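Q: What structure does this chain adopt?
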Amino acid sequence: MRLAQRALFLIVAIAGLMPLNAMADKLEIKRWNPASMSKPKSYSQIVTVKGDHKLILLGGKAGLYADGTVPDSLEDQVKQTFQNITLALKDAGAGPKDVVELQVFVVDLAHINPEPIYQAIRDYFPENARPVSMVIGVAALARPSLKLEINVTAAIAE
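A:
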């Protein structure tokens, strides 16, 4: 088993199953929140991926426009970040329902209102397709004007 596959299977599981791909015989994605844990609105506590699949990794998606400029506000950066995620997923043959993990890096998280980020995550994913997710406060990102970056892992049937 390849390292990337092992890493994906470490995104572990607990109660409920929803095959979300039309090729469910080749790929089964299960997402759930166990009865023993909290029931978050914007992510699942556990996601597992089983079957013949292609793993899609989007590293450091941010709120950059196509010309390389960056919006000033957190809200506009969040909006552009999710537009960029949509474009990248589409180019790889995937969509929001195929995302199994998000890692959200936010600059100065302790001193901002993260609600626009949380709302964008809730709005982006279908209710039955919430990925596992983590929000991580960081001091800075590679470009000083960026307020957040998101790593995305998705899986689609081969």
